[in-house]
Specification:
mainly alpha
Length: about 55
């Protein structure tokens, strides 16, 4: 029963999403995730270096 559910979900997603649309969605999510991670790293580095100067 679980196999049929996975297969039906896969077929429905393949029929509703075109290839380019799926790839575009993946890259859009990846781009925002990357921007978020870079911002977090920059803030952490800024905090580390600003504490180092105050000591």
């Amino acid at each position: 029963m679980k196999k049929w559910s996975i297969y039906s979900m896969t077929i429905i997603s393949l029929l509703t999403l075109t290839g380019c649309e799926a790839v575009g969605t993946i890259f859009k999510a990846g781009m925002w995730w990357g921007i978020f991670l870079v911002c977090i790293i920059v803030v952490i580095l800024f905090l580390i270096f600003s504490k180092g100067k105050n000591s």
